[in-house]
Amino acid sequence: EVQLVQSGAEVKKPGESLRISCKGSGYSFASYWIGWVRQMPEKGLEWMGIIYPDDSDTRYSPSFEGQVTISADRSISTTYLQWRSLKASDTAVYFCVRLFEGGWLQPFHYWGQGTLVTVSS
Amino acid sequence: EVVMTQSPVTLSLSPGERATLSCRASQGITNCLAWHQQKPGQAPRLLIYGASTRATGVPARFSGSGSGTDFTLTISSLQSEDFAVYYCQQYNDWPPSYTFGQGTKLEIK
Prior knowledge:
The complex is a heterodimer of chains A (121) and B (109).
Chain A: E1 3-6, E2 10-12, E3 18-25, E4 34-39, E5 45-52, E6 57-60, E7 69-73, E8 78-83, E9 92-99, E10 108-111, E11 115-119
Parallel strand pairs in A: 2-11
Antiparallel strand pairs in A: 1-3, 3-8, 4-5, 4-9, 5-6, 7-8, 9-10, 9-11
Chain B: E1 4-7, E2 10-13, E3 19-25, E4 33-38, E5 45-49, E6 53-54, E7 62-67, E8 70-75, E9 85-90, E10 104-108
Parallel strand pairs in B: 2-10
Antiparallel strand pairs in B: 1-3, 3-8, 4-5, 4-9, 5-6, 7-8, 9-10
């Protein structure tokens, strides 16, 4: 069974750094693109970027380029989403999601449970 | 980047009725269109991909159609568990992009 298990909720202050994680299991982790999606409170879904864990090829949405860093450690089947300096506007639920099949031209398929990030002074 | 526009924003129907949700792409995306369902407090769930193929375990009352720029998700006879927010998503752009529509909230009338 394919599973994506994300790290727990975080409460941070503006200016702090943060890294959240997403661990995949039940499939060949390195062989499927994984994406990250933001959902701000009471808002819709926004794709942030995708990464191919085998070689860490990463593509970002123009809206998030330079704002976050996506990385992967294939040895522990985990991808990460990282901020250097959080803002209050980063408050949201963040989902990781595996693409349907190999290759990037695929829909988002298996979703993690989401990680709530709250940034408040 | 391709912009996805869904209509209506909110759809109020009763159980047993037929629901028709629309999604329009700002440029042609062939059939690279997915539909996701999201219930409150939950992660989204893939329903339809390739514009018309149901994902594993999705009931037959859900169907998708369309190609190019105009797409439709139809729920033939609404069940109580179908009231949720539905998002369309394109995955045909280059460089890679996976833009979502703004969502349609399907609520009980």
